[in-house]
Amino acid sequence: MREAYQVELGQLADELANMCAMAGTAMELATRALLEADLGLAEQVIGDDAKIDDARSACEEHAYALLALQAPVATDLRTVLAAIHAAESLERMGDLALHVAKAARRRHPNPVLPEQVRPYFAEMGRVAVELARSAESVILNQDVEKARSLEEADDEMDDLHRHLFSVIMEKDWPHGVAAAVDVTLLGRFYERFADHAVSVAKRVVFVVTGRMPGYADDDEL
Predict the structure, then answer these.
(1) pLDDT reading at 29 higher than 90
(2) 45-67 burial, b if ≥16 CB within 10 A, otherwise e?
(3) Among 41, 63, 128, 200, which residue is least crowded by beta carbons within 10 Å?
(4) Are the C-beta atoms of 121 and 103 separated by less than 8 Å?
């Protein structure tokens, strides 16, 4: 019975890792759609979002079944509860990629981004996808050190986001209010995507250590 239960927990981790991969791919394609004004890619991301929603539902149903039927304790209980929280974050990551794709579709055939800020979004897209891939690895391997390293990539995203905002706020911004609003919203989507990826990694640290990173009395985490 115990061995079968561990197999179930492993399958739950695989489901979460697959959601990570799906969210990362969605953001990768959405970023390309944004930078290249590619309507086909935007439509692909929009159409595939339902798959991420379905994956969350399946993951949560699996987790609740394990809670109801197995009454897990200690590490096993933390694993199941963390999976429920992580699935929510991963679905949100998919939604944020969806928002990027919808912005690209809304302005098509015109580009959404002024040339001045395109390099920022290319880099933010790279960091976002890297974070999703790293979170996938953390889930599969329960790698606490790698989970902690995601904070550094998130800091990089935050720096890009702050710099982007400073560009928009410059007095000589020549692209008008509509472009500024688009850029502001899109920058926020990338920043939040990164935050959710870090949240997923923190859930893995909680599973392994029993402590949630970020508490004031937790010097190491």
Answers:
(1) yes
(2) bbebbeebeebbeebbebbeebe
(3) 41
(4) no
Instruction: Give the domain extent around 71.
Output: 2-209
Rounded to two decimals, the pTM is: 0.93
In this structure, what CATH number is given to the domain that contains residue 103?
1.20.58.220
Q: Say what the pLDDT of residue 216 is.
A: 38
Q: Which residue has the tokens 């008008």?
A: 176
Average pLDDT, the chain: 92
Whether 165 is in a domain gets the answer yes
Closest CA to 121 of 39, 68, 61, 188: 188
Which residue do the tokens 């963390």 mark?
A: 82
* Average pLDDT value for residue range 158-183: 94
Vertex 98 angle, CA 94 and 104, to 5°: 150
Please give the tally of structural domains in the chain: 1
Best CA proximity match to 141, nearest among 10, 25, 7, 3? 10
Q: What CA–CA distance (Å, rounded) separates 30 from 42?
A: 6
pLDDT tens by residue, 56-104: 999 999 999 998 877 777 888 899 999 999 999 999 999 999 999 999 9
CA distances from residue 89 to 84, 100, 208 in whole angstroms, order as listed: 9, 17, 19
State the virtual CA torsion across 42, 45, 47, 49 in degrees, nearest 10. -150
Whether 204 and 212 have beta carbons less than 8 Å apart is answered as no
- Which residue in this structure is represented by tokens 């492993």? 10
In a domain, 50, yes or no: yes
